[in-house]
From TrEMBL:
CDD domains: crotonase-like. The keyword Lyase applies. This is Enoyl-CoA hydratase/isomerase family protein. Keywords: Lipid metabolism, Lyase. The keyword Ribonucleoprotein does not apply. Belongs to the enoyl-CoA hydratase/isomerase family. The lineage of its organism: Bacteria, Bacillati, Actinomycetota, Actinomycetes, Propionibacteriales.
Length: 253
């Protein structure tokens, strides 16, 4: 199963992504992430969410092989809509979302993490947006929430990655820990939040979103428009065909 959820007695909702071999999510997987997070809006027992993953890395973006093996544009459109829904659900979740990042976090993974409220990571974790390699654009909105503007542009144009330890210096990753201790780190922070009055925390989440200087939904949707143009030009399909013939971890948003 790609996405599973467990609500603990202390009000921590643990949402786990697992889609071997590299956690590049298929179209349905992105909608499943959104659905798992939307539960917080209707269930007052949920006080905080921990978004995590099992496997080699946190998230490698969309499943490009699924896209290239699907006739027509259904998978492409589905991936665009699914990513938008998942990123939006993280940002607009009624309670704080803690992203616990293990290994790699690429493309759509950065979209999830950039919209989270708190980010913790394993000491071997790294982040990147390789969209330009696959003829897509997206998640610059979210990478810009992790690093300063000029560094974001450097990472975006080069498709380079940045280690979690450097993001700690930028203040976007709260802390790093050995991979074996990552869940404890995330759950410890979650427990601290869950111990507060849930009504106040929900109000605080809405208030913080309300004073955010960037409309992340509009900004990301704008980026997606250029991805669609590149697809109509045939550029994206050519690059994805090349990528789909490799076994490298990575994806696009």
């Amino acid at each position: 199963m790609t996405v599973t959820s467990t609500l603990r007695d202390d009000g921590i909702l643990v949402v786990t992504m697992q889609h071997p071999p590299v956690n590049a999510l298929p179209v349905q997987g992105w909608f499943d992430v959104a659905a798992a997070l939307d539960v917080a809006a209707t269930d007052p027992a949920v006080k905080v969410v921990v978004l995590r993953a099992e496997g080699k890395g946190f998230n490698a973006g969309v499943d490009i092989k699924e896209m290239q093996n699907t006739t027509g544009f259904d998978a492409l459109i589905g991936a665009n809509r699914g990513c938008f829904a998942a990123f939006k659900a993280v940002y607009e979740c009624a309670v704080p979302v803690i992203a616990a990042v293990n290994g790699y976090c690429l493309g759509g993974g950065v979209g999830l993490v950039g919209n989270a409220d708190i980010v913790v990571a394993s000491d071997d974790a790294y982040f990147g947006v390789p969209e330009v390699n696959q003829g897509a654009l997206g998640a610059a909105t979210h990478m810009a929430r992790l690093v300063p503007q000029h560094l974001m542009r450097t990472l975006y144009f080069t498709a380079r990655t940045i280690p979690a330890a450097e993001l700690v210096q930028h203040g976007s990753v709260y802390a790093v820990a050995p991979r074996a201790e990552l869940d404890d780190l995330a759950l410890g922070l979650a427990a601290e939040i869950a111990a507060k009055d849930g009504r106040v925390i929900r109000a605080a989440k809405e208030a913080l979103n309300g004073i955010d200087p960037v409309d992340v939904n509009h900004s990301y949707r704008f980026e997606q428009g250029f991805t669609m143009e590149l697809n109509l030009m045939g550029v994206s399909d050519e690059l994805r065909d090349t990528f789909a013939g490799t076994d490298k971890a990575g994806g696009a948003a």
